[in-house]
């Protein structure tokens, strides 16, 4: 191997994350960051692209407020139905054997009102 040949090594995931973190916090352009850290632009592009694809494929966790109701006071205590309290204060209760399609249409209408 002569002196002109550069040996490429694979970075560990922790190293890639460190590079990405440094870039994202640097405030530098991609070109500036790559020059100052001795990284090829294509390498940084590849790291950023992989990170973006991972974020897109990972579903965002979304929390929904839930109210716990005392079963003894609930009108559903005699059934195994469901109750949904909408953000606007409306409450929808369904019993066992309900038609899911009808419920979905009802909720769609209520959310528009």
Description:
By secondary structure, the protein is mainly alpha-helical. The longest helix is centred in the middle third of the chain and has 17 residues, at 41-57. It has a two-stranded antiparallel ribbon with strand order 1-2. The chain is built from four helices and two strands. 46% of the residues lie in helices and 7% in strands. The chain is rod-shaped. The protein folds into two domains: 13-57, Arc Repressor Mutant, subunit A; 63-113, no CATH class.
Mean pLDDT: 77
- Lateral arrangement of strands in the main beta sheet: 1-2
Largest sheet: 2 strands, antiparallel
The quaternary organization reads as: single chain
**Cα-atom Rg, whole angstroms?**
27 Å
Terminus-to-terminus distance:
73 Å
Beta-strand share of residues: 5-15%
For the record, the count of structural domains works out to: 2
Computed structural class: mainly alpha
Uncertain residue segments: none
Share of helix among residues? 40-55%
How many β-strands, per DSSP? 2
Please work out how many helical segments DSSP would assign.
4
Care to give the gist of this entry?
The chain is mainly α. The chain is 46% helix and 7% strand. It has 4 helices and 2 strands, in the order H-H-H-E-E-H.
What are the main properties of this structure?
mainly alpha; 2 strands; Arc Repressor Mutant, subunit A; 2 domains
List the topology elements.
Blueprint (H helix, E strand, L loop, with lengths): L12 H14 L3 H8 L3 H17 L24 E4 L5 E4 L5 H13 L1
Antiparallel strand pairs: 1-2
């Amino acid at each position: 191997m002569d002196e002109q040949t550069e040996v490429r090594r694979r970075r560990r995931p922790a190293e890639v994350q460190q590079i990405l973190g440094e870039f994202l916090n640097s405030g530098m352009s991609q070109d500036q960051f790559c020059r100052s850290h001795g990284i090829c632009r294509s390498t940084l592009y590849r790291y950023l692209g992989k990170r973006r694809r991972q974020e897109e494929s990972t579903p965002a966790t979304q929390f929904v407020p839930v109210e716990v109701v005392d079963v003894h006071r609930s009108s559903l205590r005699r059934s195994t139905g469901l109750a949904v309290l909408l953000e606007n204060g409306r409450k929808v209760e369904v019993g066992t054997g309900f038609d899911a399609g009808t419920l979905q249409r009802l909720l769609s209408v209520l959310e528009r009102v």
